[in-house]
Amino acid sequence: MLLVLCIDLDDDVGRKTDIDTPVVGSDAVREAAIALATVDPEDSDLNVMFQGLSTYDSLQAEDDEAVEVAVVTGVEGNDVTANRTIGDEIDTVLAGLQTGEEVSAIVITDGAQDESVIPIIRSRMPIDGVQRVVVRQAQNLESMYYTIKQVLADPETRGTILVPLGILLLIYPMVVIAGAFDVAGAVLLGLLSALLGLYTLFRGLGLEDSIDATADRIRNGLYAGRATLITYVVALALVIVGGVQGVSLVETVTPTGSDTPTIVTTAAAFVHGSVQWFAAAGITSSLGQVTDEYLADRFRWRYLNAPFYVVAIAIVLYGLSGFFLPDIAGIAAFTLPDLAIALTVGTLLGVLSTLTFAVVESRYPATPEPA
């Protein structure tokens, strides 16, 4: 059996004619169409109902299969409620059809918005076809309006399209205003262009998700009282200080003459001047991480290896870089025995910390073993 289903999403038929819906049967649909035409001749749903009647007559004349026509309506102003109301009315229509055959539908609509109910119809019966009926003078007007409305309602699409467009539209008036205040228009134009370029690059690389996730982690860390937030800030400060100290030592070993230091000497000077600060940053951040793990009941004894490893690596790098420093005034270069002592101490510190915490964890596990 074929059911010609006319869709009135905003319930113009029910609101304007006081006719109870759903409307089932060709005579009832024709009466409803005439009643709506009498009240509001410009309503586009008239086209839908008359097209439904035309399709109904054509199918009856061409096919031996049983055919019925019906009008189902939603509600005004709320698409979700309207879709659910149409689903209920379709169920009422199907329940009233006294047939043992499978029912399939031909859907008649007046635009893209009404076609949003197609998934609801398809969940109840197969759809053999969809016919969109609009006035010829405005063939694509409603579809364009609905598409623009949907685009502007989507926050992500709205930000992607409207923000760059807004920046472009602001360029000329901002340049004019800048000229009125004796500000170089080229400078302002370059600034706006840079903002637009940064925004486009930001959206193109998809960095908004990473930044949002980072902001969420920071906010959750503040609320949860995580020690890593403080220790990371302190570690960053120590890294900056270490970089400055490393550059300062590089300048110290740079001769005043025409000769320039080798890459090995420059690297050794930078590492030697900064490694203790970098080590302090590593110890600070690792202690903050260990504290958070302990507070979250995820502590393991082997986590305490981290600060000892940092110290061990720092000792090795400090001794190795000091060995390659030039022997000039203000710098005490390491001798070969000094390098041997640094390498030995660093190695022993790393190995002994690993063995110590492994033994402690085996005898005093931080958390009970699962049964």
From TrEMBL:
Q: Does the keyword Plastid apply?
A: no
What UniProt keywords apply to this chain's record, in alphabetical order?
Membrane, Transmembrane, Transmembrane helix
Superkingdom, taxonomy of origin: Archaea
Pfam families according to UniProt: DUF373
Q: Which residue ranges run through the membrane?
A: 159-177, 183-202, 223-243, 263-287, 308-333, 339-360
Q: Does the keyword Membrane apply?
A: yes
Annotated protein name in UniProt: DUF373 family protein
Q: Which organism is it from?
A: Halonotius aquaticus
